[in-house]
Amino acid sequence: MTTPSTPRRPRTVLAMGPRVRDALFDAAALDRLAAVADTDPALVVGDFAAAEHAAALAGAEALLTGWGCPPLTAAALERMPRLRTIVHAAGSVRHHVTDACWERGLTVASAAAANALPVAEYTVAAILFTGKRVFDAQRAYREQRRRLDPLDLLAGAGNYRRTVGVVGASRIGRRVIGLLRPFDLRVLLHDPYVTREEAGRLGARPVSLDELALSSDVVTIHAPELPATRHLFDRARLALMPDGATLVNTARGSLVDTEALTAELVSGRLNAVLDVTEPEVPPAGSPLYDLPNVLLTPHVAGSLGNELGRLAHAALDELERYGRGLPFAGPVRAEELARSA
Ligand SMILES: NC(=O)c1ccc[n+]([C@@H]2O[C@H](COP(=O)([O-])OP(=O)(O)OC[C@H]3O[C@@H](n4cnc5c(N)ncnc54)[C@H](O)[C@@H]3O)[C@@H](O)[C@H]2O)c1
Q1: At residue 304, what are phi and psi to the nearest 5 degrees?
Q2: 118 close to ligand 1 (CB < 6 Angstrom)
Q3: CB of 200 within 8 A of CB of 191?
Q4: 25-58 as b/e: b if 16+ CB within 10 A
Q5: Ligand 1 centroid vs 158 CA: distance in angstroms?
Q6: More confident residue, 7 or 171
Q7: Is CATH 3.40.50.2020 what the domain over 116-296 is classified as, yes or no?
């Protein structure tokens, strides 16, 4: 049996936007930070070129990054000759981990798995609430202020044996499929990287994207933003969706042709729950704000409020693993970035 080596407290510098540290780390998390890393928690670097940070950066073995961390360019890395690892207390590392980091052989970890949970929770809530036609019922009640006949009001509504189409068995997509398991729903999956066997193990039936669009009462998009996923839901694919179906997008606005979707929503043929749009923010005059069949939220599905504490602890877990010489639980690998968020 191998025993992990004695834990070390790697010399660590925090790099993130102003106010992000305070949002991530409460007093307990700061205590834990001090236990797992040799760090000055008062120092938060927002500019790798700033002269006052030169000494701290020169000694850093680890960077604990968060939203707003500037890009780790070759020039920035030159100021960190001892740097070995980057632990990101958020999801995607695309904004700050550059090719120069991979060329330097740095290891990278991210809390993306922890960030997947609130997005999956939002999605499941959206699927269940829209299946039940909760927003239609609320609107009718608000407008009519009288007893409404549920046989008229909610005809065709309900979450019994509905079909949910999941696009992308990503971290979030897998969480959604897992959270949907207890319900009486049929789950379809489209993901070009997932075998039939694996889809079956997840509890979903693998289908083509067109079949998913044709057969789903609710389509929920969880694929990453990549050249190959731009306008995955274009006019033609949206047209395949059955009348009255709902599109849930918590991924990225670019995966859907907004103009085509808006036309389907204005006509009332489709419904949507949109946490992301293209552009984000929609123009002030966009019908998406006011349409009764659209629930539009300002990119809030990911970690917010007390959920940031989960990201902080996930990142501290990774720093602790690093200090013990153990592999990361959520490693980011350069070769996987071409198909991940
Ligand atoms: N709304 C929010 O607040 C929020 C928060 C976090 C992430 N996101 C978004 O959610 C999406 C999923 O994030 P994640 O971290 O789970 O992604 P991820 O990095 O885990 O996704 C990678 C996986 O997506 C699948 N995939 C790749 N190309 C595909 C394609 N063409 N069709 C279907 N599946 C494909 C593959 O299984 C791949 O392994 C991303 O678009 C991300 O930007 C949104």
Answers
A1: -145, 160
A2: no
A3: no
A4: beeebbebbeebbebebeebbeebeeeebeebbe
A5: 28
A6: 171
A7: no
pLDDT at 152: 82
Give catalytic status of residue 299 as yes or no.
Answer: yes
Quick one: pLDDT band at residue 5, thresholds 50, 70, 90? Answer: low
Among 168, 163, 122, 93, CA closest to 276: 122
Question: What's residue 300's pLDDT?
Answer: 98
Residue located via tokens 């690892």: 85
Could you say which of 2.40.280.10, 2.102.10.10, 3.40.50.720, 1.10.10.10 is the CATH number of the domain covering 12-110+305-339?
3.40.50.720
The token duo for 279 is: 């552009």
Residue 44 forms beta bridges with which residues? 14
Å from CA of 23 to ligand 1 middle:
25
Instruction: Please report which confidence band the pLDDT of residue 167 belongs to, taking 50, 70 and 90 as the band edges.
Output: very high
Q: Which two tokens stand for residue 247?
A: 């599109």
Tell me whether the CATH fold assigned to 12-110+305-339 matches the one assigned to 116-296.
Answer: yes
Please state the rounded mean pLDDT for residues 190-198: 98
Give the C-alpha separation, 34 to 36, whole Å.
6
Percent of the chain with pLDDT over 90: 94
- Average pLDDT rounded to a whole number, residues 172-197: 98
Q: Is the pLDDT confidence value at 60 over 90?
A: yes
**Ligand 1 proximity of 229 Cβ (cutoff 6 Å):** yes
> Which residues neighbour 274 within 8 Å (Cβ) at sequence distance 6 or greater?
247, 248, 249, 253, 288, 294, 295, 296, 297
Distance CA 221, CA 252 (A): 9
Please write the tens of the pLDDT for every residue from 143-155. Answer: 999 999 888 878 8
Catalytic-residue membership of 95: no
